[in-house]
Amino acid sequence: MTLTDWQANGGQSGRSSGKCPERVARVGGRLPGPRSGKRRSWSAGLPRLRRPGRLNGNLGYPLALWQLVVAATLICGWTHVAPGAEPQWLTGDALRDKIDAVLHSTRYERQMSLQQNAAWQIMHGVLAFGRGFEVLDHDEPVNVLDWVFAGRPMKGWTLTPTRAGLRAELEPGRNGQGHEDQWLAIISQCEVSPDERIIVGSDEYTVKDLIRRTMYDCYDGKESSWTLIALSQYLSPKDQTWTARDGETWSLGRLAGMEAGPSYNDNAWRSRIWNGACGGTHRLIGLAMALNRWQAAYPERELTADWEAARDRVQWAAETAHTYQLANGAFSILFFERPANSRSIDEHLAATGHTLEFLSLALSKERLQQPWVEHAVEYLCDLLDRTRELDLECGALYHAAHGLVLYRQRVWGERGDW
């Protein structure tokens, strides 16, 4: 939904027209971090200003004018300098400090609660900010993973014990897991040990039981983007094979080759990327992450055809993102299909955030410091900063934050103070 559509609709939310298929979720309100003061209450509105005529606690523009300001900056790009002058882009420590400020405000000036939000929304926050991410249980902050691992309830977090391990259930409506192995993929990126205890009902399990079930559930044609992320982290050794429920032998390489698509048919593998979740970025993130881990584990090995296909898709997508990038630093809202712009906050946030998330895994540190990537980072920081008073779609919001987190870690080798 564009800002114009939203205003015409009386401030009521609607589904974004963007490529990202994930459910529109509510993330609102402001929670003070260690540097801020008075707490503000949670709000479920989507999308709307926190308060008409009020921006970041100071008297500001009336509501309608603020909408026009946001829309204009999205269409025309952020204004760095006067017309005719050279753009003044941030780089080095100045860009790092801007990333840190935006991540701090995203983490602490927005909040979710167990009473108002579901696992699909909350687990995206965990993806962005890791093992220490907290939400509210009524008025008390609780650590998300500690909470669910202890067997406490969260809407949409549904695990079923089976003979082959713990199965995380898919749930329609995007309250729960929206893709197979999505929860395990998020957990695997939070430095959670495979021996970590998980309580289900009155019984005790471990993360290993989720891993066992994921391995058992491999089959030809499965959407394995999240499977690759999880298993490439947890399998040791990474070149092991196993028999799945279909009776066939599986490996990380076979999963990677299946996700990459057939190398003999360019139309087939490109369509596989284009038709993947969120413009294909999730498929590419899975391929990039698994390829990185495979090459780190076996640096002297020649890549098999499956891993070569994965490498080729990753390289193609990185170059395509650069080619289709807009002049203001944003990436195309049609991701890897063609250049495209939009008035929609959701579309820009989803496209540039997801694409940066992928590039932060796909590119070397040197390439991540090239101007075109730095411009995208600054654009995304500006977008998040200028929409601090709007309730944003949470999948796009937290994938954008995760992209900035990954970029911060890759370029400066550490997490920031947030």
Q: Whole-number average pLDDT?
A: 84
Helix content: 40-55%
Strand coverage percent:
5-15%
Class by SSE composition: mainly alpha
What spatial form do the alpha-carbon principal axes imply? globular
Count of distinct strands: 10
Biggest beta-sheet profile: 2 strands, antiparallel
Rounded to an integer, what's the Rg over CA atoms? 21 Å
N→C terminal distance: 31 Å
Task: State the helix count.
Answer: 16
The poorly predicted ranges are: 1-69, 74-81
Q: What order do the SSEs take from the amino end to the carboxyl end, as H and E?
A: HEEHHHEEHEEHEEHHEEHHHHHHHH
Task: Record the SSE blueprint.
Blueprint (H helix, E strand, L loop, with lengths): L2 H6 L45 E2 L2 E2 L3 H14 L15 H17 L10 H11 L4 E4 L2 E4 H6 L9 E4 L2 E4 L13 H7 L8 E4 L2 E4 H10 L8 H10 L7 E2 L5 E2 L1 H9 L5 H9 L6 H17 L7 H19 L21 H18 L2 H4 L2 H16 L7 H19 L6
Antiparallel strand pairs: 1-2, 3-4, 5-6, 7-8, 9-10
Helix pairs in contact: 3-15, 3-16, 4-16, 6-8, 8-9, 8-11, 9-11, 9-12, 11-12, 11-13, 12-13, 13-15, 13-16, 15-16
